[in-house]
Amino acid sequence: MTILSINVTRRSAYRLISLEGELDRLTQPSLAERLDEALSDLRPPAVVVDVTRLSFCDSSGLRALAQARDRAVAADGWLRLVGVNGPLALLLHVTGLIELLPTHDDVDQALRGVAAPPGPGRASGEDTATHRPAPPGV
Q1: How far apart are CA 22 and CA 114, in angstroms?
Q2: Which residue ranges make up each domain of the chain?
Q3: Cross-referenced InterPro entries, in alphabetical order (predicted)?
Q4: Which of 59, 110, 54, 60 is nearest to 82 (CA)?
Q5: DSSP code of 56?
Q6: Taking the model in full, what pTM does it have?
Q7: Fewer CB within 10 Å, N- or C-terminus of the chain?
Q8: pLDDT exceeding 90 applies to what percent of the chain?
Q9: Reduced to 3 states, what is the DSSP secondary structure of residue 82?
């Protein structure tokens, strides 16, 4: 059985969505619903998604995150990821979504819009148009 815990924390300037467990085709609809709620709470939308405790993510999970990011940007807002590492970092690079989904080490860094430095098994997305190549071997 696939389990995904989704915790939404409402702050005055942003929404923090913390994920724990597996994000796949069975749990993606719940995340999409929570993302929609978070995106409609603030104008412009500002959403930080903490994936530190996410143990698995498939293409349907990536699609939900990318679509939410697109909706945020269309409303002059943003969606940023925190705690990306391991297989999710590799998946973001392989799919090219690292260019669309900025990654950060922690919430404070995400709020400042400062991208996480590249490192082994970590994503290196950023908010600027500057392109960073994928790590060697990806």
Answers
A1: 27
A2: 4-112
A3: Anti-sigma_ant (IPR003658), STAS_dom (IPR002645), STAS_dom_sf (IPR036513)
A4: 110
A5: E
A6: 0.82
A7: N
A8: 73
A9: strand
